[in-house]
Amino acid sequence: MTAAVLFISFAILLAISTPIAIALGVSSMLALIVEGVDLITIPINIYSSTSKWVLMAIPFFILGGNIMDKAGISKRLIKLADTAVGHRKGGMAVVCVAVACFFAAISGSGPATVAALGMIMIPAMASSGYDVPFASSLMATSGAIGVVIPPSITFVVYGSIAGASVGKLFMGGLIPGLLMGIGFAVTALIYGNKNCNLVTKEKASGKERWLAFRDAFWGLLMPVIILGGIYGGIFTPTEAAAFSAVYGLVVGLFVYRELKLKDIRSLFIDSISTSATIMWITANASIFAWVLTVSGIKEVITTAFTTFTGGSTIIFYIIVNIVLLIAGMLLDSTSALYIFTPLFIPVATALGVDLVHLGVVMIVNLAIGLYTPPVGVNLYVACSVSQISLEKILKPTMLLLFSSLIVLLLVTYIPQISMFLPNMLK
């Protein structure tokens, strides 16, 4: 009865376009009432789930990314990549993917990457010969790399739920993120040469390349310092996040000098708003996950899951991938992680699956969900930027989706891809 109330009410609320956080919270409350659990336990559970030290990294990473974006790092990264490969046929597509990878390491957010870079990169790709629908699709898919490339807010959330090392999760996401980028770039080059009238431009001189690198250096240094500090044991992920915000302020105010004191207030307000949204979802999703536990639903599902897999990691990952690809289309990453991670971990532990590898596989799935039709949020952001309808970018999106599914299969069934760098930390 409790399970029926929980899932049916949740589905109905989603169907009537209720915000995901409210849908999670209301359906959980209804299930607790049916279960006969005192509702006073809700605020206690919310406090225990949101007061984790590692979650403090989220607002600082968001603030650091907002500051660096305002400081003009995006246009400097684009100029650097453009001087390196922009002169080649189809090079602007490579620029789009490369800059998305770099910017993702700063912002840590897929939609934020699409919004920040789309206004520059989509017109630039169109002027180089790519059609606008494909340019928009490439921007939407490349922006999702921000969920996988460290430092990723999504990895912080998973680490807090699973108890896995955030530093190792960051390291584990690096190679899969780069593989996704390479897949997008190769697909874009093949598509461009077969379907578009691509144009080239004059090759940048050595001096122009040096000046572009020098101008972008301080922005490029930010993820290096953050990741190097974490992996070198200099500071924790939360401390690294706080450092990123301070570093961004110093670079924006005194190096690039594009950030003004009057901008700081609005940056803090935007960062607080975004962080509050994430934490509000986290709070309600944690209640949903807790209801699954206290009602016995979690035990029933994990038992059935374990029996169905028959001790096979291949079957386990097939189920994980199918479930999360669907969930990624319907739920935001935070909600999906809070709902499914507690269900997957007992089975993964019984099968001897490394929780870092499981986390990387889950986050790659959720990244793909950001641009999977019909509800991938990155697609809507890209459409808004380029002022075209969703229907026009569906076909090119499917081509790029195919390449990322290949990467997903490789990451899933060749654990060394995601575990090579984390194992170096041992």
Molecular structure report:
- With 426 residues, the protein is an all-alpha fold.
- The chain has one domain (40-423).
- Helix content is 80%, strand content 0%.
- The protein contains 20 helices and no strands.
- The protein has helices at residues 2-15, 20-35, 41-50, 57-70, 73-85, 91-107, 110-127, 132-143, 153-162, 166-195, 206-231, 237-255, 261-294, 297-309, 313-330, 333-351, 355-369, 377-386, 390-413, 416-423.
- The longest helix has 34 residues, at 261-294.
- The chain is globular.
- It starts with a helix and ends with a helix.
Q: Secondary-structure blueprint of this entry?
A:
Layout: H1 2-15, H2 20-35, H3 41-50, H4 57-70, H5 73-85, H6 91-107, H7 110-127, H8 132-143, H9 153-162, H10 166-195, H11 206-231, H12 237-255, H13 261-294, H14 297-309, H15 313-330, H16 333-351, H17 355-369, H18 377-386, H19 390-413, H20 416-423
Helix pairs in contact: 1-2, 2-13, 3-13, 4-12, 4-13, 5-6, 5-11, 6-7, 6-8, 6-10, 7-8, 7-18, 8-10, 8-18, 8-19, 9-16, 9-17, 10-17, 10-19, 10-20, 11-12, 13-16, 14-15, 14-16, 15-16, 15-17, 16-17, 17-19
